[in-house]
Amino acid sequence: MNYPQLADTIPIEFGKQFISFITGMQNDQRISLKYHFSEASGDVFAEVKFGKLAQGPPGHTHGGAISAVFDELMGACCWVNGYPAMTAQYTTRFFKPLPLEKEILYCAKIKTVDGTKISLKAKLIDETNQKYASARGLFILQDMEKFKQMNLDTGNTVPSMADIHEN
């Protein structure tokens, strides 16, 4: 894809350090995804293509698959900006059915941080800026000790910011 929004961004690997529903086991027949981070704005982007295993309506992407990527994208936006957080709630609004195998761009940004509450907004667009869906999320800042304990219980490690930014 050739999106101007990706100029001056750096690729990030999110989900490599732990098991993730979206980025855990790559399967281009389901979801092909590459994350990018803008250090200047703090925005996170994902180049995505949904394969045939992400089908909802015939020939089009399942709304749950689109929503799941929004959830992980907004979580990634929190983490790479230094806010270890978990989803409290998010909503997805759909504007147009998304054909399978279409290369598309997700964009997420933090709107506000108020104590432990982090509000984000995100959108899903194509190369012509056509909007397919948008999302708003509320994430809650977590104590790193909580994540460490959760990971001890599963045998994983908590990713550091250096791990996430690593190519």
What does this molecule look like?
- With 167 residues, the chain is α+β, with helices and mostly antiparallel strands.
- The protein has a single domain (4-158), classed as Thiol Ester Dehydrase, Chain A (Roll).
- The protein is built from three helices and seven strands, in the order E-E-E-H-E-E-E-E-H-H.
- Strand 2 and strand 3 form a beta hairpin.
- The radius of gyration is 15 Å and the shape is globular.
- The chain starts with 9 loop residues before the first strand and ends with a helix.
Main sheet: strand order: 1-2-3-5-6-7-4
Task: Supply the number of helical segments.
Answer: 3
**Overall pLDDT confidence:** 87
CATH-assigned fold name: Thiol Ester Dehydrase, Chain A
CATH superfamily: Hotdog Thioesterase
- Total individual domains: 1
What is the CATH class designation?
Answer: Alpha Beta
Structural class: alpha+beta
The radius of gyration is 15 Å
Approximate helicity band: 10-25%
- Low-pLDDT residue spans: none
Please, what is the oligomeric state? single chain
Number of strands: 7
Residues in β-strands, percent: 25-35%
Distance linking N and C termini: 19 Å
Task: Describe the largest sheet.
Answer: 7 strands, antiparallel
CATH architectural category: Roll
**N-to-C order of helices and strands:** EEEHEEEEHH
Query: Which word captures the global form?
Result: globular
